[in-house]
Design goal:
heterodimer; A: 482 residues; mainly alpha; globular; B: 101 residues
Chain lengths: 482, 101
């Protein structure tokens, strides 16, 4: 067994424990600054992750449960980046959390460790445990403002539906295990001629996909998304949007391509229908929204739909597109939620109308939010455009063998067209709103400016110079067997 | 009568369905939570039965993890429900309606 393979996870857990201990010796009025310390620690881990050796042949630890390959490393770096952004954002949010801010940081770091283990999962036991580490910490993060009814309500809704989805996941795992006699992905894949015949096995995989579909907020498991996004503390919402969604996608990719490759190829209709319905549902329901976080909740459903296109394509280029899109989505969402946190500090709510006059109050914030909305809408030359282009191209590539893929690509384009309307509603509120109730300038701290700048640079870089990151994504996607 | 794998599986499927029905039909958070535990235990029963008839211990190992995770889920869940009860003096799901369009 090779324990050095999970050195990054060990480092992350150590950062979490260190934060928990430092909390004991920190004065209450300085506790919110621990977030910067956590972000710095994770930054070191992120730098270290670039020096972790990866071989083209996957290495395994813990009896094959844990796999280390390019795909795992790609997602780990993505999760680390996301958590650093979320921690900086939480420091900004700290005054609005009545007590236990250092626990908020610690739990975020522990959730990160769960996500990183999920990226390396190669066994259904590992899938379950890592997913539950993430989910249970998110129950707490969502309901952290325990004196605010909205936050509690969001937490309870997430709790009930999340527990329901894990019950399905577990039952699915039980059925899969029963027929194949093993929990390891490689053993299950080796028994494909036995399992392909069995309807119980297929039901099991369907249940597992239901459990994972909940995490990515794909139709028909998206019901919780708007409520939880709206009620949760903004940093937790940002973390849900990036971390939780990416965890779901890495696990779906692993399960489909490592455990049941033959079965996945025969289910293209299911994935196509899910992708199309998710895109349409998310975009249509977002149209009448007046609350920014709720709007981004529906937009997150729509984005899960775009990402599902890459799954429906069932090809290496589809998986590459998913990885690339998640990278762009990370920068976009972090920028958007950072601006929302700053604006809602003075307004007290997250209504779109509270953006009125943002251009006069802080041109930089207005520019950052505009750019992230433009990227989400998929307009060139930003990351969101190139990601969507790759996803649609992966779908069109498959259309030569099966023409229904043209229809799917058409649905995606229609979805993008609808989404332009509501994203530009936000931009209109920033620049052309009639009423300006509040014209006091918004102050930003150094680390927040750093996050915003990193987000803007990331969006532009991924949109204009995609070659380098695309190569990394291709290499990562090649770790999956097709 | 010989008790075989299918008997265990039928009981497990029944437990899972009863739990699911409870989650959908019940209006009290505590009872919904109990039904969710029932669903997890249905999966446990299936895993143990499969483990016995497959002649390997992977399934039983999974059961230990499920029990542990379920325990921590209950700890978090009940704490949340208590916090909610303190605010609203109710555990009825129909009172959870502040987050609407």
């Amino acid at each position: 067994m090779n324990i050095s393979l999970c050195i990054l996870e060990i480092a992350v857990v150590l950062v979490g424990v260190a934060l928990l201990l430092l909390d004991l010796w920190t004065k209450p009025q300085r506790k919110h600054l621990l977030g910067y310390l956590g972000a710095a620690g994770l930054g070191l881990v992120l730098v270290g992750s670039f020096f972790v050796p990866v071989t083209d042949v996957p290495q395994t630890a813990f009896g094959g449960m844990f796999v280390h390959d390019h795909l795992a490393l790609f997602f780990k770096q993505l999760f680390l980046l996301a958590t650093i952004g979320v921690l900086i954002l939480s420091v900004e949010f700290a005054p609005r959390i009545e007590s236990g801010i250092s626990e908020f940081y610690t739990l975020s770091v522990f959730a990160l460790s769960g996500m990183m283990f999920a990226a390396s999962a190669n066994n259904f036991v590992m899938v379950f445990v890592s997913l539950e580490v993430v989910t249970i910490t998110f129950y707490i993060l969502t309901s952290f403002m325990k004196n605010r009814m909205q936050s509690l309500e969001a937490g309870v809704k997430y709790l009930i539906l999340g527990a329901l989805s894990s019950a399905f996941l577990v039952y699915g795992i039980a059925l899969v295990y029963g027929i194949s006699g093993s929990m390891a992905f490689s053993d299950i894949a080796a028994k494909s001629e036995l399992t392909l015949e069995s309807n119980i096995f297929k039901l099991g995989i369907l249940f597992v996909l239901a459990g994972l579909g909940f995490k990515i907020a794909a139709f028909p498991y998206q019901i919780w998304t708007p409520d939880v996004y709206q009620g949760a503390p903004t940093p937790a919402t940002a973390f849900l949007a990036i971390g939780s969604k990416a965890t779901g996608f890495v696990l779906i990719l692993r399960v489909l391509y490592s455990a049941v490759p033959e079965l996945a190829l025969s289910w293209e209709h299911l994935f196509m229908a899910m992708a199309a319905l998710t895109i349409l549902y998310g975009n249509l329901c977002a149209l009448p929204q007046r609350n920014l976080k709720r709007l981004l909740g529906y937009s997150s459903i729509a984005n899960a739909g775009y990402l599902m296109l890459g799954i429906a394509a069932l090809s290496p280029s589809g998986s590459t597109a998913i990885l690339y899109y998640l990278g762009g989505y990370l920068f976009t969402i972090l920028t958007a939620f950072t601006v929302i946190t700053l604006v809602s500090r003075s307004a007290g709510n997250e209504d779109i109308s509270s953006l009125a006059g943002l251009n006069e109050r802080s041109p930089f914030l207005a520019f950052a939010l505009t750019l992230s909305m433009v990227s989400l809408a998929g307009i060139p030359p930003l990351a969101g455009f190139f990601g969507k282009f790759l996803l649609v191209r992966a779908v069109i590539e498959q259309a030569s063998s099966y023409s229904a893929y043209y229809l799917l690509a058409g649905v995606a384009v229609v979805g993008v067209a609808i989404s332009i309307y509501y994203y530009f509603g936000v931009i209109r509120a920033i620049y052309w709103s009639k009423e300006t109730p509040d014209t006091s300038p918004i102050t930003t701290s150094g680390p927040i400016r750093f996050t915003l700048l990193a987000g803007l640079v990331g969006m532009l870089y991924l949109g204009i110079m995609p070659d380098r990151v695309l190569k990394i994504a291709e290499l990562a996607a090649a770790s999956l067997q097709y | 009568m010989q008790v075989g794998l299918e008997h265990y599986l039928v009981v497990s499927a029944l437990l899972f369905s009863i739990g699911l029905l409870g989650v959908v039909m019940r209006r009290n958070l505590i009872l919904i939570y109990m039904s969710l535990e029932l669903m997890l235990n249905a999966a446990n029963l299936a895993l143990v039965a499969f483990s016995r008839f497959n002649d390997n211990l992977d399934g039983q190992l999974m059961v230990f993890f499920i029990i542990t995770v379920a325990a921590s889920e209950v700890a978090v869940g009940l704490a949340l429900i208590v916090a909610l009860f303190r605010r609203r003096q109710t555990t009825n799901v129909e009172d959870l309606a502040t987050l609407k369009l």
